[in-house]
Amino acid sequence: MKKSARLITFLGIAGAALALGASDLPTLDSHLEPLRPWLEKTWKGEFKNSKPEKPTIDIARWERALNGHAVRISHSINDGLYGGESIVMWDEKEQKVIYHYFTTAGFMTKGTMTVKDGIIHTEEIVSGNAGGVTEVRGETEMRPDGTFHVKTEYFKEGVWVPGRETTYREDATAKVIFK
Question: Is 67 helix (H, G, I), strand (E, B) or coil?
Answer without folding.
Answer: helix
